[in-house]
Design a protein that fits this description.
alpha+beta; three-stranded antiparallel beta sheet; 398 residues; elongated
C-alpha cells in the first residue's frame, strides 16, 4: 500500500509559523465570520489535507529508487506546502492548479471526498474545497451548521455570477469574469451597507456615539455591563456587581482596568467605576463557588444569587464603554446619557418561548431567565428585530 507524505515527513516549522500567524489576520479571514471554539487554522487544514493525499516518494521506487532522489522529491513537495500555507497565496491560481494537479496524480485522477462530521468553524471542509475536493460537513450544533452553510455551501452556488444589487444594475460595473464569489461579495457589501444605514435611521438614537476627552465623537464598540444582586448581608444591602474580571486590556504597555469606587455616605452604599491604567486591577467578584461583596467583603452563595434572579431582582449596571480611537480602542467612564439611551429601547416583539429545563446544561433558568427573550436586553431585542425586518425588505432583482 502506498504511503502518503503525512506518514513520513512534513515541514512542520513552516506550517506552525503560518498557523500561528493567522491569529493576527483579520481582514478577509473566515474566523471573523463568527467566533468558534478550537477553530483549526486554515494553514494547518490545507497542509494536512494535501499531505494526506500526496504519495510519499518512497511509494514510487520506479521514479525515486534511492534515498537521495526520494529526499530531493520530498523537498520539492515541502516547497509546495510552504507556499501553500501562506495566507498571501490563497488567491494564487497558478499555485493551486499545481497543487490540484499533484493531488490528481496521486489519486489516479479520482480524489476521495472529504467528510468532516464535526466541522465546527468549517476550516477543514473550506480548505478541502479550495484544494478542489468534494467536501461534506455536518455538526450537532446548529450554529456550526449555519456557519458552514454561509462559508461553504452558499458561496459556490454563486460562483462566476455578477452582482444583482441596484448599483451594479444601474452602472453595470465592469468585470471580466466575476471570478469565484466576487459577485456575491459585492452584493454582501452593498446590502450590508444598506442595512446598516437603514438600521441607524431607526435605532441610532438608542446607540449613541461616545464623546472623547478632546470633544470628538467615536463609535462605541461595546458597552460593559455587570449583572447585580442585593448583598445577602442585611447590614450592607448594596447592589453588588457580579464581575469575573475588572481587566479591560492586558496588552503590554496598554494595561487598563476598572476600579470600583464605593460611596459609603449613602445607605446602602453606591458603587461606581473609574477607568485606570496599570496592572493593579482588583480581583473579580464572582466565580463558580459563589461571589464576594466588594462593599462589605461578605461571601455570597450561588443559591442567593439564583434566588434573587428567580425572584426578578437581578439588575444591571453599566461599568464602562469601549470606543474606537485613532490608534486603537479607548476605554471610557460610564455615564447617564448611555444608560438612558439603553432604557429607551422598547422591543415590539419578544421571543417568549420557554427554554428547556435542564439545570445541568441550560444554566439560565436557575437564575430566573426562563425564556429566549430573557437572554437579551431590550436594546438587543430591538436591534435583532430591526435587522430581521430589514432582511425581509430586501428585494434583489434576479
Amino acid at each position: 500500500m502506498k504511503r502518503k507524505l503525512i506518514e513520513v515527513a512534513l515541514p512542520l516549522e513552516a506550517i506552525n509559523k503560518e498557523s500561528s500567524r493567522e491569529k493576527s489576520i483579520r481582514h478577509g479571514h473566515p474566523s471573523t465570520l463568527h467566533l468558534w471554539w478550537s477553530r483549526k487554522p486554515l494553514a494547518t487544514s490545507r497542509a494536512v489535507l494535501f499531505a494526506s493525499l500526496i504519495d510519499d516518494p518512497s511509494s514510487h521506487l520506479d521514479k525515486f529508487p534511492d534515498e537521495a532522489s526520494q529526499s530531493q522529491e520530498r523537498e520539492r513537495l515541502f516547497g509546495l506546502i510552504e507556499r501553500l500555507v501562506k495566507w498571501e497565496n490563497i488567491t494564487d491560481e497558478k499555485l493551486f492548479k499545481a497543487i490540484r494537479d499533484e493531488i490528481l496524480a496521486s489519486t489516479d485522477g479520482n480524489p476521495p471526498p472529504v467528510l468532516d462530521p464535526f466541522a465546527g468553524g468549517g476550516s477543514i471542509p473550506l480548505e478541502a474545497q479550495r484544494l478542489g475536493l468534494e467536501a461534506h460537513a455536518s455538526d450537532l450544533n446548529p450554529v456550526a451548521v449555519l456557519i458552514n452553510k454561509a462559508l461553504i455551501e452558499i458561496p459556490p452556488k454563486f460562483a462566476g455570477r455578477a452582482p444583482v444589487n441596484p448599483e451594479y444594475q444601474a452602472r453595470k460595473l465592469k468585470s471580466s469574469t466575476w471570478q469565484g464569489a466576487k459577485g456575491l461579495a459585492e452584493d454582501v457589501r452593498y446590502y450590508g451597507a444598506w442595512m446598516r444605514t437603514e438600521a441607524e435611521k431607526r435605532i441610532g438614537h438608542i446607540y449613541p456615539q461616545a464623546k472623547l476627552a478632546d470633544g470628538r465623537e467615536a463609535t462605541v464598540i461595546a458597552w460593559l455591563w455587570a449583572r447585580t444582586v442585593t448583598c445577602s448581608n442585611p447590614a450592607c444591602g448594596c447592589q453588588m456587581p457580579l464581575v469575573r474580571s475588572f481587566v479591560l486590556s492586558s496588552k503590554k504597555g496598554k494595561e487598563t482596568y476598572l476600579q470600583p469606587i464605593i460611596d459609603r455616605s449613602q445607605k446602602p452604599a453606591k458603587i461606581t467605576f473609574e477607568v485606570r491604567e496599570g496592572n493593579e486591577a482588583p480581583e473579580g467578584t464572582v466565580n463558580r463557588r459563589g461571589a464576594r461583596c466588594i462593599v462589605c467583603e461578605s461571601p455570597v452563595s450561588l443559591e442567593h444569587i439564583r434566588s434573587e434572579g428567580r425572584a426578578g431582582r437581578m439588575g444591571a449596571q453599566l461599568m464602562g464603554i469601549v470606543a474606537e480611537g485613532v490608534k486603537g480602542r479607548v476605554y471610557l467612564q460610564a455615564n447617564s446619557e448611555h444608560v438612558s439611551a439603553s432604557l429607551q429601547a422598547q422591543p415590539s416583539y419578544k421571543p417568549l418561548y420557554e427554554l428547556p429545563y435542564n439545570p445541568r446544561d441550560f444554566k439560565t433558568p436557575n437564575y430566573g431567565m426562563k425564556t429566549f427573550a430573557d437572554l437579551f436586553t431590550d436594546r438587543q431585542l430591538v436591534a435583532l428585530t430591526t435587522f430581521s425586518d430589514l432582511v425581509g425588505r430586501l428585494e434583489p432583482k434576479p
